[in-house]
Design a protein that fits this description.
Largest sheet of chain A: 8 strands, mixed
Number of strands of chain A: 16
Number of helices of chain A: 20
Oligomer: homodimer
Low-confidence stretches of chain A: 1-38, 126-147
Largest interface: A-B, 189 and 190 residues
Chain lengths: 537, 537
Amino acid sequence: MDVMSRSTVPSVQGSKTSHPATNAGAEASADAASAAGAGVGSDFLQLDIGQAPPGGRTAWLADRLRSAIADGRLPVGARLPASRVLAEELRVTRGVVTEAYRRLAESGQIAGRGRLGTVVVAAPAAPRVRATAMPRDQDRVRGAVPPGPGAALFGSGDREGVVDALRALPSRIDLSPGVPDLAAFPRTSWLRAERAVLAGATPADFGYGDPRGAAALRTAVVGWLARNRGIRADPDEVVVVAGVAQALGLLGQILAADGIRRIAVEDPGSLGARQQLEYVGHEIVPVPVDAAGLDVAALRAGGARAVLLTPAHQFPTGAVLDGERRRELLSWAADGGTVIEDDYDAEHRYDRPPVPALRSLVPEGVCYAGSVSKLLAPALRVGWLLVPQNRLDALVTAKRYADLGNGILTQLVLARLMDSGELERHLRHVRQRHRRRRDAMLRAIERHLPGAHVHGAAAGLHLTVTFGDPPGGARDGLRDTDLAAAALAQGVKAHPLSWHRITPGPPGLVLGYAAGPAHELDEGIAVIGSALRVLRG
Amino acid sequence: MDVMSRSTVPSVQGSKTSHPATNAGAEASADAASAAGAGVGSDFLQLDIGQAPPGGRTAWLADRLRSAIADGRLPVGARLPASRVLAEELRVTRGVVTEAYRRLAESGQIAGRGRLGTVVVAAPAAPRVRATAMPRDQDRVRGAVPPGPGAALFGSGDREGVVDALRALPSRIDLSPGVPDLAAFPRTSWLRAERAVLAGATPADFGYGDPRGAAALRTAVVGWLARNRGIRADPDEVVVVAGVAQALGLLGQILAADGIRRIAVEDPGSLGARQQLEYVGHEIVPVPVDAAGLDVAALRAGGARAVLLTPAHQFPTGAVLDGERRRELLSWAADGGTVIEDDYDAEHRYDRPPVPALRSLVPEGVCYAGSVSKLLAPALRVGWLLVPQNRLDALVTAKRYADLGNGILTQLVLARLMDSGELERHLRHVRQRHRRRRDAMLRAIERHLPGAHVHGAAAGLHLTVTFGDPPGGARDGLRDTDLAAAALAQGVKAHPLSWHRITPGPPGLVLGYAAGPAHELDEGIAVIGSALRVLRG
């Protein structure tokens, strides 16, 4: 069927361009004679002057504006087009528009606001669209305040969306883990780099790009990883992703397509990372973590063909995968296992030497994911993923279908900050701040949580505390979700350790110290301490 | 099992933070006494001074630097840390570092470059990592030049990745569809808005955010859609996505989870959109398009429970879904069908009145996707998706697991450009440029492609030409892939219409006119015209 010969714009719509090209020139001239550049009618409210009765255009226009104000399409504060512009688009005299505007101004609905133009200043009272139609149970998922702080959040065994829900709750003091000092975001450097990027970008940079990301950023990431993580790679091997969250989702997809349906994870380990893999259909195989990191013998025994781990700074315990475990793990990988290395906050160290990335030891056996979330800001949503050569095509395809690649401007700005050394300078700067806050939190824990055990404070942006049984020897059955709920009731957020456990274990809290000032840390820990005393009677 | 009680940083790593918190204060004091802010060792090359022999630190450091230069971790142009910074991080005297630097400078490997600091200037010749290990067949997928321009690209029936591959090829003149005038990107307005955003953002804006997107952008999008597309919505219903590509991927996922596995699409229709749905596992059901748009009777007959279409400006034919078809389609939706409205370039009109969005007529029956790709630039990767209320939770969850939400800065800048009216001004500006280019392309087609039929030139950023049989009456079996390959061999890119067809049909080309200047359009069409004459003998 020759659909194309009929696939013309219907003549009722006023187009003649379906005719053979011999007419095209005549058409173009006719077009040029009409109002230059404006289409027929205006996008603004989809005004089509053809619907106005002859001689009644002003009344018609005023009526259309009134309806739009009444039904909320033009809310208070909305700006109307300049009368000259709207007149051109509708191909009416400017007087038609100014007169319609004048009528609405007289009835008090719009007003001139000088440089801001003409804006809507009053609207008849009308129910907001859907403002009341939203079922309450959806609010929980999207993070509105549940009835009674923390009740829904910490009371149920369902952990789906709990981190987002906690994040969306108001609080005085936020001790959630995983966030650097956001007040230190280098706004001036960023703006300077953005100016240079906008001045230097080619038009093609604004078009559809390489799904792997901008070449400039892939090259900068290679330099960053070589200098700071001991990893040698070619820019062609780097795929820029929207943070480690997307990296895990894409890896989960390509592994599943390869027949791998079970992935081992650290227990305790990141709830978010685990959920990411479960969402794309994987069965999770928990593997215990001890002082030397992931228990590789248990990994072998579990039979999973892939493992996700945080070797440089285990989340949430802070353990470092030690030398012997590294050798065991790489031997497991050599036997066909796939290692996913989440290098999530390797750059934040205080009291210990740097740990090289697994990927720097075995380029071919390790999928490596990192991001700027802990270096600069999670909200940038930029990370990178390196996979073994035999998985690269599948990864690039997965990234293409995920979103066609990351946004360009953030990528180019980051590339400049990495190339110029400003990102390393920023890291040195925030590391000092983070270290002072870590120390302040340790002092606060000593003061307000005597007897608590502190884990993983030598590096990172958080530490973990666990609570032994109270003096006297009896086990007290403390639940860390109750403790977190009690703290939240007094305006202090923290993650119960049990959120990040698969196998049950002693109660604890995961406490971020990097985001807020020292006095808040002390106050927050004091609140937790008094809540703990109340719970223990 | 009490894993936490053992999950401490091993003491060999120098940490003492696993002890009960009663020691924390003493530790913190000890920390403060050591080099302020620096960890033990440097992230730079993961240098650990503990590995240096006593009295041999300078030689050790020089050796580590030489190795890194030799193995490519420090390529020519890489910058070394300032000697003061590195000395602090390694806790050595500055003389150790300056002496090591001096030795490498003497051997000609590094040099001082004033304000740039100390950089690598020469490296021993060494093979680049993996530079030769890359199999050639992967280059095709990732877009390197195939052997003989266009041979692999247009010769095979496999359309996977062809659009990306064509995009990555060099050309003199690019007539690929789907790209606005990128040279008109409002760099000055963007930078001004970015400055205001960076000045006004709160620290929390840089943290993990709402997976639906920034509230400011969701509110701005609601205003934009109300003014320009007749759509009334609440900001809580808007999900910001990484362009329509991601919107289709997410919709595909949530529909599949709901048991919908077959999606109807327009034929011809966008190859990219179709592939997006196929990638997430959908079977594609082609539905013919004619002058009135999608054939709704054929949609009903096909039995798919969801349909993706471009009602305002059908890609690639340019047809507008007419009133009767709209009524038929909405009646199909009322019977339980799911409509996915891709409103991809509704804003670009020249010779016809605006067409309201389907979503504006039936808020509850239509999933609506739009983006700034055609308004501003595809490389921004920002769009929006509205779904019926009963699918909103599933969509928000899918977006969360896709990437935790779009990057913040681009969102906040866009919100400002929408709220201030600058985006509407930009649209008026580019529409004039696009219209002139459309006219130039129509003239060029008249001149160089006599007898070609032009479709869909009343709106959009591209038009489609089809070729009737040559004068004399005999069918000549012209293949549009041959024509596109012949044009590419002379440096002109265009999409063969057959790429976007599912059911075979007459040959044609889809020709974008918005991206380049008028003289290129004429030259590009001239090349296509001469290629056509050669192919037809």
